[in-house]
Structures are given as structure tokens and as C-alpha cells.
Write a structure and sequence with these properties.
This protein has four helices and four strands, in the order H-E-E-E-H-H-E-H. It has a four-stranded antiparallel β-sheet with strand order 1-2-3-4. A hairpin with a 6-residue loop joins strand 1 and strand 2. The longest helix is centred in the first third of the chain and has 15 residues.
């Protein structure tokens, strides 16, 4: 297990134990657990992500702390990087969490913004 996977496992456990509340870096921030299947492996993975609530939607940001590459989880979800509201949503998140304003300064890439919409329970089987 990598250091990041180990850290994420601790956050996930804390999130589940405390009904969505965690301490440390994410303390007081809106956090969700995104579970998806690996694009190549098909292995189910869960990743803790900060999000911006937008009505009933959850907006997540593939910042990877401003690294020059996208985070691994990004490749497992579909997104349209040319989405017209991307800049507006990113700016709203940066207003709420100023660290997000720093990430684009660290990388030449456009940080993807992914909008998640809850599935109906009937759709999830």
C-alpha cells in the first residue's frame, strides 16, 4: 500500500466511523467518498474528495494539490473538460477554500472539474 493509499484508508475509516466528520487537513470541509471501478483493472476503489455542493449535485476537483498530472481517480470517471461552467464552479470552490486558488499556479494543466449527480436508488440496483 502506498503512502497516499494508507493516508486515504485512514480518512475513509474516520469518515465512516464519525458519520462524515474527519479531522486534520479536511476538518470542517465538505468531504465525500467517491467509489468507482478502475478503468483498466475493474477493481472497486474509494477516494475521499473535497466537494462543492451545487444544488443536488456534488462538484469535485481533480487538483492533485496542483501537481502537473491528474490524480488517478480522474481517469475512472468521465468528465467534459470544456464544460462551460467549469471556471465558475472552480472559482466558487476557491472562494470557500483558498488553497484551491493556489493549485492552478503550480501546474500548466487545466484542473478538471467533475460534476456528480446522485443516482436514484432504483438505478443502482
Amino acid at each position: 500500500m502506498t503512502e497516499r493509499e494508507d493516508r486515504n484508508a485512514g480518512i475513509i475509516q474516520e469518515f465512516r466511523t464519525n458519520h462524515g466528520k474527519v479531522g486534520g487537513y479536511f476538518e470542517g470541509r465538505p468531504l465525500l467518498l467517491l467509489t468507482m471501478r478502475g478503468a483498466r483493472t475493474g477493481v472497486e476503489r474509494t477516494t475521499p474528495l473535497a466537494y462543492l455542493a451545487d444544488g443536488e449535485r456534488f462538484v469535485v476537483f481533480a487538483t492533485k494539490g496542483g501537481a502537473p498530472t491528474n490524480p488517478d481517480w480522474y481517469y475512472n470517471v468521465s468528465a467534459n473538460p470544456a464544460e462551460p461552467e467549469r471556471s465558475e464552479l472552480y472559482d466558487r470552490q476557491a472562494e470557500r477554500w483558498p488553497a484551491f486558488a493556489e493549485y492552478p499556479k503550480k501546474t500548466p494543466r487545466t484542473i478538471p472539474v467533475i460534476v456528480l449527480e446522485p443516482l436514484d436508488q432504483a438505478e443502482t440496483g
